Amino acid sequence: MSKQRRQKVEFTAEKPVSKPVKVEFYTKDGEKVSFKGHKEVTKPVKVEFYAKRDKKK
């Protein structure tokens, strides 16, 4: 009997960033630029796992 190896699955998924990041902009004169804006940002996350073996009937 030969043991069947489980197949390794790897892929890159996109995960929403959990914490909002504060950003400030300044002009060349040093004045602060005020604006309102929101954007959903995602970051790539590497996912890898071994697939389950098929059940014997």
Structural notes for this entry:
The chain has strands spanning 8-16, 25-26, 32-33, 42-50. The protein has 57 residues and is an all-beta fold. Strands 1-4 form a two-stranded antiparallel ribbon. Strands 2-3 form a two-stranded antiparallel ribbon. It starts with 7 loop residues before the first strand and ends in a 7-residue tail after the last strand.
Main attributes of the structure:
mainly beta; 4 strands; 57 residues; two-stranded antiparallel sheet
Percent range for β-strand residues: 35-45%
Distance between the termini: 16 Å
Radius of gyration, whole Å: 23 Å
Strand order, largest beta sheet: 1-4
Poorly predicted ranges (pLDDT <50, ≥5 residues)? none
Largest beta sheet, briefly?
A: 2 strands, antiparallel
Mean pLDDT: 83
Structural class of the helices, strands and pairings? mainly beta
Give a concise summary:
By secondary structure, the protein is mainly beta. 0% of the residues lie in helices and 39% in strands.
List the helices and strands and how they pair.
Elements lengths: L7 E9 L8 E2 L5 E2 L8 E9 L7
Antiparallel strand pairs: 1-4, 2-3
